[in-house]
Amino acid sequence: MADKLPTSVTPAIRRLSVGLLIGQGVLIVSGGVVRLTGSGLGCPTWPQCTPGSLTNTPAMGIHGVIEFTNRTLTFALAAVALALLVMLWNLRKERKDLFWLTFSLLASIPAQAVIGGITVLTGLNPYVVSLHFLVSAALVVFSMLLVNRAHGRTGATAPATAVRPRQTIRQLSAVAAVCTYLAVVLGTLVTGSGPHSGDSTSPRMGLDGYLVTRIHVLPVYLLVAVSVILLVLLWRTPGLLRSAAVLLIVSVVYQGAIGYWQYFTGVPSLLVGLHMVGSSLLLATGTNIVDLALRRGRDQLRAS
Prior knowledge:
Blueprint lengths: L10 H26 L24 H27 L8 H26 L4 H25 L16 H27 L15 H26 L5 H25 L4 H27 L9
């Protein structure tokens, strides 16, 4: 069977890596739908959906459908990760980066399911819910790293002609990534203090919503400034890094606009959902630019 598996990175491997990245983003949005529709306890137990049934039942209504669909997505992603791991078997020594990134994704998905189960069993404790989201956020980051390596953009398979960006670009890219991750982490405090708990009986963090929102936007302001500087510095040098800077600033503007819109309109569910889409995009683009800046090229002769 191993003789029939790929011995080089094929288009199918690249497509599966992209599928994992998209799937992780969809899982974040799906989790948001569960919370925003009050379906967090649509399946009131775990690992079964309801006592005596692994799946939702008609009596559970739409909330059961939404929660069970979210759970099913986890298994679908595990299947994709397993398929990719199998396809990489013959490359496990030559392309350790791809193999172990995929293995980490596959191993993390069941762990994410367990955390999701604890979330249900604790009645949607907001701190456990935040952890559940942050694990999904980390999986988006790892998936983005996998996509770059599968497509030969970074790491050992980056083109030999790729020139390492100058130190200023590398440092600013690292700052942008840190601000992205910090904004996402602090965003869970805003969410945990907000109105959308996932169920009317679920507790809240009890933090001052205005204060945690002000704290949340501090790294966002810095991210906006750094993104603009990166785009200005890279504008005259066409290539992957300039494209990465454009994608980053588009994600930042989108996420910032939605964030302010929802804040000044009473945090409506639709805008919160769009903000979660933005979180996935921001995690991917922030990771992409720092990966390209730090892992692409082998010298410092000129900026790229």
